[in-house]
Amino acid sequence: MATTAATEIPDAYVHDYVRILSDVSATGRRLTRDELDSRRALGEQAAEDGYGLREIINAHLSAARSAWPTLRSGSESALAGIHQVIDAVVEGFERAQRHAVRQEEAARREFIDDLLYGRSDLGHLAERAERFGLRLSHAHAVAVAHGAASYDETDPVARRVEQALIARFGDRTFLLTSKDGRLLCIAPGDQTDVLHQFAKQAYAATNGGQVAIGRAQPGPGGVVQSYEEALSVLDLAIRMELDAPVLHAADLLVYPVLTRDRQAMADLVTHTLAPLNSARGGAQPLLDTLTAYFDSGCVAAEAARRLSLSVRAFTYRLERIRRLTGADPSDPTHRYTLQTAVIGARLLGWPHSEL
Fold first, then answer.
1. How many angstroms separate the Cα of 54 from the Cα of each of 51, 95, 330?
2. Pairing of strands 246-248, 140-146
3. CA-CA distances (angstroms) from residue 257 to 3, 215, 260, 339?
4. What's the pTM value of the predicted model, to 2 decimals?
């Protein structure tokens, strides 16, 4: 709300007030309900018209001081009347401000929902975005933070992150918000330092949450594309047990490539790893063996340590895998097929789900 200078406040805001004050002073009565309601209504109107609360109060005090010599009773009744009037005006003013804030929050929430779901006309969306400091004709990237708890924009965690970003990038254009319990930061694609700082602050504020940063995408639909990419990375982190605090979609492009043809990946997993189901205890222990082996750079001693096995027991498992699948994990020719199949199994949830 813009604030209008005090000298521009119309006399209509205080004219009837002088009459009420004179009557209260003369009779010693309190203001009636209708009189209080009228003062509240004027306070609301003043706020809607853009006048500041200080100016409205000063106008009432000035009018009371000018009328003071004409009051026909003791000062106590007059002062009580002034107090009631100003209290009612302030109440109305604050009520109007709360309503304006709620309207602004509703408009902001609606804009963010439309932006992240792509439900609005892109041209109209771009016009609305400028109100919130975004120029959708440029490329934008989205970072999404997920923690143990659910967060919204009023949460102390969200405010802490926002304050840290404003303190460092006060002159930059970015939008901090929330969606489905996650914190989001939307920034121009060339301002990666903003997203990196958001990731750092969000990781600390959420006590070790995880942050995914989508790639910068151009145009009005770029925000929703980057947002969906960041969400996919968080989902991938769960399935692949990726525990890095910050994950960049650009560094994980191999995974969407591998799952682009889901049926082909399912066929690879079935053909390569299904024989492990015949092992005692099922496929999972041997699948964990392969995962540890590949994650440790194919170093048997390190993989055995990760699984709390002796090297001998671990190498026995590798041999068991070779006999069941016909593929030798230590053979470079077979290793790529096995590793790709293991990644596919983790992405598709095998062997706990049907392919």
1. 9, 16, 79
2. unpaired
3. 55, 15, 5, 15
4. 0.66
